[in-house]
Amino acid sequence: xxxxxxxxxxxxxxxxxxxxxxxxxxxxxxxxxxxxxxxxxxxxxxxxxxxxxxxxxxxxxxxxxxxxxxxxxxxxxxxxxxxxxxxxxxxxxxxxxxxxxxxxxxxxxxxxxxxxxxxxxxxxxxxxxxxxxxxxxxxxxxxxxxxxxxxxxxxxxxxxxxxxxxxxxxxxxxxxxxxxxxxxxxxxxxxxxxxxxxxxxxxxxxxxxxxxxxxxxxxxxxxxxxxxxxxxxxxxxxxxxxxxxxxxxxxxxxxxxxxxxxxxxxxxxxxxxxxxxxxxxxxxxxxxxxxxxxxxxxxxxxxxxx
Length: 306
Fold this sequence. Notes:
This protein has helices at residues 30-40, 57-65, 129-138, 147-150, 180-187, 192-202, 241-253, 259-273, 285-296, and strands spanning 2-7, 11-16, 24-28, 45-52, 68-69, 73-76, 82-88, 94-100, 115-120, 141-144, 151-153, 159-161, 175-179, 206-210, 216-220, 223-227, 300-304. By secondary structure, it is an alpha/beta fold. The chain is globular and about 55 Å long.
């Protein structure tokens, strides 16, 4: 049995930073950015994912060396891996273009899966709602990032967000995390506090909204708390910040730690990731906990009696 299994596509990301014209090729996707920090914090990790025949062997070797179990990764030699072109603007926002997409993940891919927690994080509509429904039957903790449920793609592959008509699938979720824009698209509400409340009212136990450099808002029990972003030395590449936040959060959550401490660790993990291009900025417990303590001391309750 694994502590944490991440479900979603690996990706190959071509990242263009502000002031640059040549893209940098990096391994990406939630299975990368969520699994590795969780492993660095002591969790045993695996993934349920699919890639194409173009997925580099060196990426597989890199993941295995870092302790990520790949026994449920399916390689389809006749298909392509999910590939994104990600171009960052000077204001920190990004434009994303889907270049190719790997085959979808099916309910059958999780048959017999044993884990203390799963983090379901699609990036290109690859995970069906029926998989979420099946996961809750056997997995004690189910976490969801709905980014790939909300993403739509135009004829050129440009990514835009569109809400879904039926939010009933959220009743199965223990931990929910979305960016501010994703949360607004999902709920149709512009007020982030009200949007968190709507998600919680459906049945989610803990709802988290990431707000970029502002940190995160976390709704639990009858309150909403502001968890600040950890102090980082520099911001180079925000890719994977939200996914790595969840890696840190869930690694602590499955240990039974205080939820606000879990969020502090998530904030710390993501602060290291954005200091480098791609998934090279993960650190061990000592450094992660050092920044997490700074964050934890500055958490503020912003609303009560939701």
